[in-house]
Task: structure prediction
Amino acid sequence: MGLRDFDLDAAVDDWTEYYLGNGPSLVVFLVLNAAAFLVGVSFYVHSDPALSDLPTFLYPLFGDSPTALALMTLSAATLLPNLGRRVADAPVNRPLAYLHTLAFVWLVKYGVWTVVALNLRPDLYVGFSGAALWDYWGIMLTHAGFLALALVVPRYGATTKGALGFALTLALVNDVFDYGLGYYPPLKYEAGALLAGITVALSFLAVFLASRAFDRLSETPETAP
Result:
């Protein structure tokens, strides 16, 4: 099969069914996502400002990437009761539609955000020491992987107008928190108006992509009560 014959959409469907449709691989997937979440939390524990500088209920707004991974882990965990059936046939109800939509939006937004933020000042990140290789290539490539995770969610999830509106509202609240109060993810430079504007644009873009990627709840063939 040549490159022109490759169907990405079908390949993602097959991957999702194969890896998230059986118990052992789904558990491994959840464990890996949970481990990545803990690595992200560790970064914010040792950053300046740190999680300890904020009230507990604000942690999800400050730890943007760990929040994305936590939402993805919860979203994928909803497939556990569906084992033995096709992933595409997983039941979806309104609360799950909100969860899946938030997971998708956060993964897309902060996967792209990280790549953009590092490349606005590559001179501060690109290098050849072990630390520099991780600070640029390691962080950029792992966060670009968020986009691959986001591709999976619409294969078993659905959305609603309410979920899309809720996701956009929370994303914009997060932007105000990050740039209005100065709690954007720690960088080696001061975030200015350009990065703030890009971040707000990413909030709208991620929600728009969610509206295109997901089936609407009313259109899904099977929903949970």
